[in-house]
Design goal:
Layout lengths: L3 E5 L4 H12 L3 E8 L20 H14 L3 E5 L1 H17 L6 H10 L2 H7 L5 E3 L4 E5 L6 E5 L16 H6 E2 L7 H10 L21 H9 L6 E4 L5 E5 L22 E6 L4 E5 L5 E12 L9 E6 L7 E9 L2 E11 L6 E6 L2 E10 L2
Parallel strand pairs: 1-2, 1-4, 2-3, 4-7, 8-11
Antiparallel strand pairs: 5-6, 8-9, 10-11, 12-15, 12-17, 13-14, 13-16, 14-15, 16-17
Length: 363
C-alpha cells in the first residue's frame, strides 16, 4: 500500500520542494497549509504581519504549487491552538523576565502535534516539513535520531530538539540531504510560482521585532518604568518596561556611558534592569529544565558534548549531567556569552542531537 504523507506547505520554497521530493520518492502526498493566526481577530498584530507568513498570498502560493504537483491541498485552521500554545506562552515567559523561543513551542505543541493533526485530518503515515534536518534510526538502540542537515548553515535541529520518539518516527525531512542552493535550483527547474520568494525572517507574529509593543497590545497590560542600575546597584537611568529588554542587549538602553554597556540581568520583583560591560555577560555553566533527550532515554553519567544556547551560535565543548528527571547541568569548557533564561540549550554528539532543554538558571 502506498504510504501517505501529509506535507506542511507554508507557501515558501522549502516546503514546496519537500513536497516534490516526497512525490518522487513514491509517497501519496496531501498538501496542508496551517493557518496559525488571524490578523483580523488579533488586532495587536502589526500590519507587516500580513506578509510574514500565513497570509492569503502564502495560501495562494501553496495551492498553486500543490496544483502543479497534482496533489490535493487543504487549509487547516490552528489559530486557537497557536494562540494558546505559542503566543500566550511567549507573553507569559517575557512577563516572568525570561526570553522565549516561540519557534520551538510551535514545533512542540502545534506543527508536530500528531494527535491534533490526526483529529482534524484523515489519518496519515508521515508528516513532512521543509526543515533542514535528518532522521535516522540507531540500529543498536532502535531509537530514532535527529541529525544535522548536510547544509550546516541551514541546519534547523536547534528548533526541533523537542520532538519525541513518536514524532521523529513519523517525521520526514527530505531537504536534509541538500543545500539551500540545490533546493532553490529545484524550485526554479520546476517553475514553481514561489521560486524566487524570499525567506520569512524573525518571529512570524512579530515581524517588526518590537516585542514590547506586541506584548502590551496583546495582553492589554502596561509595564511600569523602573531603574536601570549597574553591577554595584548604582542607578544609571530609567527603563521603559522590563519586557523590552533581554540579556546581552546593547541598543535602545538610553544610558550614556564612557564604555559600552549591555543588559547583564533583570529582576522582575525589583523591576530593575542591570547593565554591565561585555565581560560581565560570560558564564561557564547553566541548568536546563523541561528537557527532551533524543539519542537516549536518560543520561547515566557525565557526557562530553558540544552545545549551543542560541540558534545561530557555534557549538561549544561542554560536559552535561542529568541532575533530575527533568533537569540537567551543562558545564562549558570556556565561558559563554549572554546565556539567557528562556532560550534553549541543545546538545550534540557530532551530527546527532543528544537532546536539549530550556535554560532556567545560570550558576
Amino acid at each position: 500500500m502506498q504510504p501517505k504523507a501529509l506535507i506542511a506547505m507554508s507557501g515558501g520554497v522549502d516546503s514546496s520542494v519537500a513536497a516534490a521530493l516526497m512525490i518522487e520518492q513514491g509517497y501519496y502526498c496531501i498538501g496542508v497549509t496551517f493557518k496559525l493566526y488571524d490578523a483580523d481577530r488579533n488586532t495587536c498584530l502589526t500590519p507587516q504581519t500580513e506578509g510574514a507568513c500565513c497570509s492569503p498570498q502564502d495560501i495562494s502560493d501553496a495551492k498553486a504549487v500543490a496544483a502543479r504537483l497534482g496533489i490535493p491541498h487543504y487549509v487547516l485552521d490552528l489559530t486557537d491552538e497557536f494562540e494558546r500554545e505559542v503566543i500566550q506562552r511567549f507573553a507569559q515567559v517575557y512577563e516572568m523576565g525570561d526570553t522565549p523561543n516561540p519557534c520551538i513551542d510551535c514545533n512542540r505543541y502545534v506543527k508536530f502535534n500528531l494527535q491534533l493533526l490526526r483529529k482534524s485530518l484523515d489519518d496519515f503515515d508521515f508528516l513532512t516539513t521543509g526543515h533542514y534536518a535528518r532522521v535516522k534510526r540507531d540500529p543498536i538502540s532502535g531509537r530514532f535520531l535527529l541529525c544535522k542537515s548536510c547544509d550546516e548553515k541551514k541546519d534547523q535541529t536547534y528548533v526541533l530538539y523537542c520532538l519525541s520518539q513518536r514524532e521523529l518516527e513519523c517525521a520526514r525531512f527530505p531537504l536534509g540531504e541538500f543545500s539551500k542552493g540545490q533546493v532553490r535550483k529545484m524550485a526554479e527547474d520546476k517553475n514553481f510560482v514561489n521560486k524566487t520568494k524570499a525567506e520569512s525572517q524573525d518571529i512570524c507574529f512579530v515581524p517588526d521585532g518590537n516585542y514590547g509593543d506586541f506584548i502590551e497590545a496583546y495582553t492589554g497590560k502596561s509595564w511600569s518604568p523602573g531603574d536601570i542600575v549597574d553591577l554595584q546597584g548604582k542607578i544609571l537611568g530609567r527603563h521603559r518596561g522590563i519586557i523590552r529588554y533581554t540579556i546581552g542587549q546593547r541598543r535602545g538602553l538610553g544610558v550614556a556611558a564612557n564604555t559600552p554597556l549591555y543588559v547583564a540581568g533583570k529582576s522582575v520583583p525589583d523591576n530593575t534592569v542591570t547593565l554591565g560591560p561585555d565581560d560581565s555577560l560570560y558564564r561557564k555553566s547553566l541548568v536546563a529544565q523541561g528537557i527532551n533527550l533524543v539519542a537516549c532515554a536518560r543520561l547515566d553519567g557525565p557526557l562530553k558534548v558540544t552545545a549551543k544556547t542560541r540558534y545561530l551560535q557555534q557549538e561549544q565543548p561542554a560536559i552535561v549531567e542529568q541532575i533530575g528527571e527533568d533537569e540537567m547541568h551543562v558545564e562549558f569548557t570556556s565561558p559563554q556569552r549572554a546565556i539567557t533564561p528562556g532560550q534553549a540549550v541543545v546538545l550534540y554528539d557530532g551530527d546527532i542531537v543528544v537532546g536539549g532543554g530550556t535554560i532556567s538558571l545560570k550558576p
